Amino acid sequence: MKTRIRYHRKLRRLTQSDVAKLIGTTAATVSRLETSEMNVSMTWLQRFADAFNVPVSDLIEFRPTHGGIPCIGEIGRSGALFEPGTGRDDDIKLESLSRNPVAIRIRENFGQYCVGDVIIADRMSAEHVIHAIGRDCVVEIEGEEGGFGRLISSDNGTYLLVPPEPGAKVRRFPLPNWVAPVVMLIRHL
Question: Using CA atoms, how far apart are residues 69 and 118, in angstroms rounded to an integer?
Answer without folding.
Answer: 19
